[in-house]
Amino acid sequence: MSLSDIKSRIEKAEAAAGRDIGSTKLIAVSKVQPNERVHGVLEQGHRLFGENKVQEAQGKWPDFRAEFGPVDVHLIGPLQTNKVKAAVELFDAIHAVDRPKLARKIASEIQAQGKSPDLFIQVNTGEEDQKAGVLPAEADAFIKECRDMDLTIAGLMVIPPVDEEPSLHFALLRKIAERNGIDGLSMGMSSDFERAVALGATHIRVGSAIFGDRTYS
Ligand SMILES: *Cc1c(COP(=O)(O)O)cnc(C)c1O
To answer: What does the pLDDT look like over 136-146, one tens digit per residue?
Structure first.
């Protein structure tokens, strides 16, 4: 699918939900994609991308930014504390804040670098062992803990279990955000972004529907 096809599907979903057209940000997830595909999407004027690994992003975005000027790049994958410094240097947003030690490290890098990426807290709504994120029952306390560190929380993020109806998870994420006064909702991927838009997503993360399948070598 082309970028413009995806954009028109987003607009249709926004209209159907009675939302303002353009109120959903499209994060083009470029992880693992060949550079020429990413280049093609940059040439079409898109300026918001997602990566899930610090090192992979370091290998491409300084060059793309040198060529195209400012590009917003969001880290959407899990972050280890030893990579926080590099992540704060490189990214405009971090979507998988999920534990106090990581939050503390981010807070101190924000102080040290005078930069403040938008922060999203990942919630493991499916309570899956292998998945990052705070449990729903612990989300309120963790949000408060982050705020006590003077961190501003831009939003919440979810990756629903593959075999469940994502809308239930999107609705739960939204409920947790609302009761904590958080506006941002990072939810929805290639297979379910219209349902996420219907439930109020502010950021959708779409990879393969824009770039084609990822080929892992
Ligand atoms: C890879 C990835 C996506 C994009 O997935 P697609 O199915 O290709 O759209 C979205 N969110 C996260 C966290 C990812 O790691």
So the answer is: 999 999 999 99
On whether residue 30 sits in a domain, the answer given is: yes
Distance 206 CA to ligand 1 centre (A): 6
- Is pTM beyond 0.90 here? yes
φ, ψ of residue 86 in degrees (nearest 5): -65, -40
Assigned domain for 43 exists:
yes
**DSSP assignment letter at 95:** E
Query: Which residue range forms the structural domain that includes residue 14?
Result: 3-211
Q: Is residue 217 one of the residues assigned to a domain?
A: no
The Cβ of residue 203 has, within 10 Å, a number of other Cβ atoms equal to 25
Distance CA 169, CA 173 (A): 6
User: Which residues surround ligand 1 with Cβ inside 6 Å?
Assistant: 29, 31, 52, 76-77, 159, 189-190, 205-209
Q: How far is the CA of 112 from the centre of ligand 1 (A)?
A: 31
Domains of the chain: total:
1
Q: What is the CATH number of the domain that holds 40?
A: 3.20.20.10
